[in-house]
Structure formats: structure tokens, C-alpha cells
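Need residues for this backbone.
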């Protein structure tokens, strides 16, 4: 206190992370343009950290949560446990491209160029256009999809994708894995490939 660097942690010691999330939802999230994706992320954070006191939350906790990876054999177990014909292709595409579930759900055939091995996302979460390079596996996967009526490649909505993924994980006996973790897995795999 004499040096002027003292900070009281009393409030953080009596406040849970769940209470902070609830306050964020009530005061900040309500004013945002699109709240559904943030609300889903906050639900995941609440499940993971909600009962912890804010003062006890460390960067190690967050890093462990952030660095969740598929363990050997888990992807195959998830694919074998899905009841949805589309979910398997969606999961594989997510792992190959690091695309968000909303991007995959909104993907239209006219934005895919298998010869150039790219797909174009005209309006991403950031509001910018993004070109996604396609791996050999992603090209084979997209080329092998059956045609659908309508423009979209897949018929599942983003929330349906997450729910089907959670059910497949439960049937496969896999805990603590969320659909968004596939994006982290894909980024890690891309990094490992150089």
C-alpha cells in the first residue's frame, strides 16, 4: 500500500466466474448485434469455470481449457457414434479447414471451387471475406457429398450441429469436448503441418 501498488482482491474472492458471466450477459451482451454465438460460448465457459471464485482463476486454467485437443481415436469414435448423415462430413470439414459451425452451416455450392482447391466465405464473423484453402481430404469430402435441393451444402443449422455433436460425443463416451474445440484442433494440425 505504501508503494501504491496494492489492489484489493476482496471482491474477486467472493465473486464466482458464473456471476461475472451473468453480469456480462445482462450489461454488455444485450447491446450486441448478434448474441446467440456469444451466449453459446458463455454457456461453455460457465460450465467449465462457473463455480470457481474469480480470484482463484489462473492463466493455467484458461490455457488448459483453450488447448483442448482430440485424443487419439476420439475423432473416429465421434464419427462412428453420430446418428446424423451430415454431421460426419461437417466434423471432418471442420477439422480440415478450421471453419466455424456457422460458416459450414451457411456454405453454398457456388462459393466452392474444387479445381482451385478453395472456398470463399463472403461474410465471416468479422464482417470480412475470407478464402479458405482446401486440403486433399477436404476436396475429396466436398466432391463426394450428395446434391441437395437448394443452394446450401448442408441442411443443418448451427445450433443443430452443436447439439448433434454433443450427442455423438456422449454416445462415444467423450466428455469435455465441444464443437468449437474442432476449430482449435484444426488450427493445431495446420500449425503442425507447417
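Answer:
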Amino acid at each position: 500500500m505504501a508503494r501504491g501498488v496494492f489492489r484489493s482482491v476482496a471482491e474477486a474472492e467472493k465473486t464466482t466466474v458464473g456471476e461475472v458471466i451473468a453480469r456480462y450477459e445482462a450489461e454488455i451482451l444485450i447491446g450486441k448485434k448478434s448474441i446467440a454465438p456469444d451466449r453459446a460460448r458463455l454457456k461453455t465457459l460457465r460450465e467449465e469455470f462457473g463455480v470457481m471464485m474469480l480470484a482463484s482463476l489462473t492463466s493455467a486454467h484458461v490455457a488448459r481449457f483453450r488447448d483442448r485437443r482430440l485424443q487419439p481415436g476420439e475423432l473416429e469414435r465421434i464419427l462412428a457414434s453420430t446418428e446424423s448423415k451430415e454431421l460426419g462430413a461437417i466434423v471432418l470439414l471442420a477439422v480440415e479447414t478450421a471453419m466455424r459451425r456457422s460458416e459450414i452451416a451457411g456454405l453454398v455450392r457456388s462459393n466452392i471451387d474444387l479445381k482451385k482447391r478453395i472456398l470463399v466465405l463472403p461474410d465471416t464473423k468479422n464482417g470480412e471475406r475470407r478464402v479458405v484453402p482446401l486440403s486433399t481430404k477436404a476436396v475429396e469430402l466436398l466432391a463426394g457429398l450428395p446434391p441437395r435441393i437448394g443452394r446450401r451444402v448442408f441442411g443443418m443449422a448451427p445450433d443443430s450441429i452443436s447439439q448433434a455433436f454433443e450427442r455423438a460425443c456422449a454416445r462415444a463416451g467423450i466428455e469435455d469436448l465441444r464443437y468449437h474445440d474442432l476449430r482449435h484442433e484444426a488450427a493445431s494440425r495446420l500449425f503442425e503441418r507447417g
